[in-house]
């Protein structure tokens, strides 16, 4: 046991190969023994269009992660009533596991908007950011953290950066492909593709 865990949040609507790659790179590069997948509660500001229910998103995660060492599904944000904020999840995890170091896996776009997160200073007290640096993309800019944490903490976040190849895939594009009857094969695990077809997800009302 390393006494450290990587927290990986997102809508996972649907979970796809890019998500799985990020989680595996996190396991390889961070000093953690576990990636804790935290599907976000449905946002009141969600984009228009058909999206999977909370239960369907959890089912898709279970289909691809069941039996996989180092991967745990944590449904606390969905189980919790009201709007969920990252700082609330970190507070809970820190209270439950006071001796475990927490890494929060985020993308470079999330880092750029970090100053607009709820209680950014507290987040950096509770965890170390592990920013995904994709090949071919600009390097993450950590200066946004300077107003919320001492230099040593910012340096820890830099050291926790996750290097991985660029993957041109997104959940939004996958939903659009399904809506327009285009293939999503090889972009999601086969079990997720079959689940989407069986449930009739991401199709217009007419379909």
What does this structure look like?
The protein is of the alpha/beta class. 39% of the residues lie in helices and 15% in strands. The chain has a six-stranded parallel β-sheet with strand order 3-2-1-4-5-6, sandwiched between helices. α4 packs parallel to α6. The protein starts with a strand and ends in an 8-residue tail after the last helix. The model has no long low-confidence stretch (mean pLDDT 92).
Which of globular, elongated, flat, extended, rod-shaped describes the shape? globular
Portion of residues within helices: 25-40%
- So what's the oligomer here? single chain
The residue ranges in which pLDDT falls below 50 over 5 or more consecutive positions are none
SSE string, helix = H, strand = E?
A: EHEHEHHEHHEHEHH
Supply Rg. 17 Å
**How does the major sheet shape up?**
6 strands, parallel
Q: What is the overall pLDDT average?
A: 92
Strand order of the largest sheet: 3-2-1-4-5-6
Approximate strand percentage: 15-25%
Span between termini: 49 Å
Number of helices in the DSSP assignment: 9
Structural class: alpha/beta
What is the total tally of β strands? 6
């Amino acid at each position: 046991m390393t006494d450290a865990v990587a927290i990986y949040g997102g809508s996972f609507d649907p979970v796809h190969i890019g998500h799985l790659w990020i989680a595996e790179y996190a396991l390889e590069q961070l000093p953690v023994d576990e990636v804790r997948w935290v599907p976000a509660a449905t946002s009141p500001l969600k984009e228009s269009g058909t999206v999977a229910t909370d239960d369907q998103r959890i089912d898709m995660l279970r289909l691809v992660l069941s039996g996989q060492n180092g991967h745990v599904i944590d449904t606390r944000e969905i189980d919790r009533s009201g709007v969920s904020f990252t700082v609330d999840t970190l507070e809970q995890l820190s209270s439950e596991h006071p001796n475990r170091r927490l890494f929060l896996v985020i993308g470079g776009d999330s880092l750029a908007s970090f100053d607009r997160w709820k209680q950014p200073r507290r987040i950096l007290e509770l965890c170390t950011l592990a920013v995904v640096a994709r090949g071919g993309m600009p390097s993450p800019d950590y200066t946004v953290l300077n107003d919320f944490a001492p230099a040593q903490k910012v340096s820890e976040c830099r050291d926790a950066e996750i290097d991985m190849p660029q993957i041109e895939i997104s959940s939004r594009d996958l939903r659009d492909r399904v809506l327009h009857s285009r293939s999503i094969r090889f972009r999601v695990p086969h079990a997720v593709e079959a689940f989407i077809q069986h449930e009739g997800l991401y199709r217009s009302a007419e379909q």
